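Journal club side-thread
Mid-discussion, someone asked how the predicted structure for our own chain would compare to the paper's figures. Pasting it here so we can look after the session.
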Amino acid sequence: FHFDGVATIGSTFGGLPQGLPNITLPNVTMTRVVELVGPAFTIAMLGAIESLLSAVVADGMAGTRHDANQ
């Protein structure tokens, strides 16, 4: 169907790509690496805390005790 004035994904954003994008390496500078160390460490710590909290909840549900060193 072709309705006048009705936008479709193809008319709004163009057609779908027919292949994979080209592989390119990002422009990495030492300044950018230093900028990202803090946020990366924060995300890693939050992931570790979330993992331990999930283990505590699972232990409470199962009535067991976990060993955080394993």
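Post-session note: The two ends are 60 Å apart (CA to CA).
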